[in-house]
Amino acid sequence: MSRLDRVEEISISKRLKMERAISISNFEVAELLKNGEENELTLWADSVRARYCGDEVHLRGVIEFSNYCCRDCLYCGLRRSNKKLPRYRMAKEEIVECALMGAQAGIKTIVLQSGDDLGYRAEDISEIIQQIKEEADVAITLCVGERDYKDYRAWKKAGADRYLLKHETANPVLYSRLHPGQTLGTRLEILGWLKEIGYQVGAGNIVGLPGQTLRDLADDILLMKQLDVEMAGIGPFIPHPDTPLGRKNQGTLNMTLKVLALARIVLKDVHLPATTAVGSIHLEGREMALRAGANVIMPNITPTRYRPLYQIYPGKICIDENMDNCLGCLTKRIESCGRKIAQNRGHSLKVRYQSPELTD
């Protein structure tokens, strides 16, 4: 049976309905998560990815510049109640230097990521963005959590292009249970602010959270469609022993790939990463994600002395590889999937971003 024939095993009517986004229901997505064959869904997603995104894989170099966090999320090793974790903050100059090294290595997007660390003033992050932009032709994605509207506006003015703020789960009760003192409503309001300010916006969810249902996962996909996101980070729940959920079961690779595949089918032209978390639970997890609709990989370019301390989850891969070895490894993995590394900044494929200054 050919690759196309296997894709066609899912009914033509269902495929056309979902790909055209005609009245997709929570029930239909949940039913595919439950009963759809992983191989069929990933083949279908791969065909959608090829049609809407092409064969290029975009590299986003992540700098994890602080592991301080004022939040107390039940699943995250950075949570403020984890007293076993030594904390660090990188100096502004060190962050800029690291970003420039990534740019010199050919990385076109720099992701500045931290816990929700209020130890950095909005002005500090603005200065970091401005210095990087002055010296390197890169896009900048921020992933620094919930802040005030004026902070987001200042960072956009300083030159930030994108903002990643995962919604984690679309179930408001589960969200509040997992994020003490926070609400899904606030998170969604902030995502709205980011769109209003002009960021290319990323959301995303965790697959396999304790108490999560297939209907919740379906809602995650449909919420990201409703939000019209440009990026979607989807990865498995990996329990951290120093958190309240440390003894819970890990999210499965099978379900993570099915959620990723359906996200590609429903969301079409968004950027979807083959996450480090998927690679951490399976040796070839990132390749499997690339074959399930992903078109982004996020190499860690944080100085190696800090990487073991950025413990959102345990067992994270690539914490001791230098940048050259990491990029060489990723190149081979990407090429093994019949894909190639993009040579542009990988801005959103959505029409509203096709302006002269965002031609790539």
TrEMBL record:
Gene3D superfamilies xref list: Aldolase class I
Species of the source: Candidatus Hakubella thermalkaliphila
PANTHER family in the cross-refs: 3-METHYLORNITHINE SYNTHASE, BIOTIN SYNTHASE
Keyword Amino-acid biosynthesis carried by entry: no
InterPro entries according to UniProt: Aldolase_TIM (IPR013785), BATS_dom (IPR010722), Elp3/MiaA/NifB-like_rSAM (IPR006638), FeFe-hyd_HydE_rSAM (IPR024021), HydE/PylB-like (IPR034422), rSAM (IPR007197), rSAM_sf (IPR058240)
Record-level GO BP terms: sulfur compound biosynthetic process; water-soluble vitamin biosynthetic process
Residues the entry annotates as binding S-adenosyl-L-methionine: 168, 187
Transmembrane segments: none
PROSITE patterns, sorted: RADICAL_SAM
Record-given protein name: Biotin synthase
Note describing how the cofactor binds: Binds 1 [4Fe-4S] cluster. The cluster is coordinated with 3 cysteines and an exchangeable S-adenosyl-L-methionine.
Molecular-function annotations in GO: 4 iron, 4 sulfur cluster binding; metal ion binding; transferase activity
UniProt KW keywords: 4Fe-4S, Iron, Iron-sulfur, Metal-binding, S-adenosyl-L-methionine
Cofactors required: [4Fe-4S] cluster; [2Fe-2S] cluster
